[in-house]
Amino acid sequence: MSMTLTRPELTKADRCDRCGAAAKVRAILPDGGELLFCGHHARQHETRLKELEADIQHGEND
Predict the structure, then answer these.
(1) pLDDT over 70 percentage in the chain
(2) What backbone torsions phi and psi does residue 55 show, to the nearest 5 degrees?
(3) SS3 60
(4) Collapsing DSSP states into helix, strand and coil, what is residue 57?
(5) Is position 7 within any domain?
(6) How many structural domains does the chain have?
(7) Nearest to residue 27, comparing CAs of 46, 8, 4?
(8) What mean pLDDT do residues 10-32 have?
(9) Residue 42 lies in a domain
(10) Which of 1, 24, 35, 45 is in Cβ range 3.0-4.6 Å of 62 for a Cys bridge?
(11) Which pTM does this prediction carry?
(12) In sequence order, what E strands does 1-62 have?
């Protein structure tokens, strides 16, 4: 039996790692780390995150 860990949905308490605004996007890096971004910073870093093959998850309200 294999178990898969899931990450909780983003909430109003989750903040952007760059500016502290409400987080709208979670980027899960291949090594398991994660970054949270507001919409502005998610768009700004989108190309690099794709290059890193990050799993990009959008919050429900995005």
Answers:
(1) 89
(2) -85, 110
(3) coil
(4) strand
(5) no
(6) 1
(7) 46
(8) 96
(9) yes
(10) 24
(11) 0.84
(12) 25-28, 34-37, 55-58
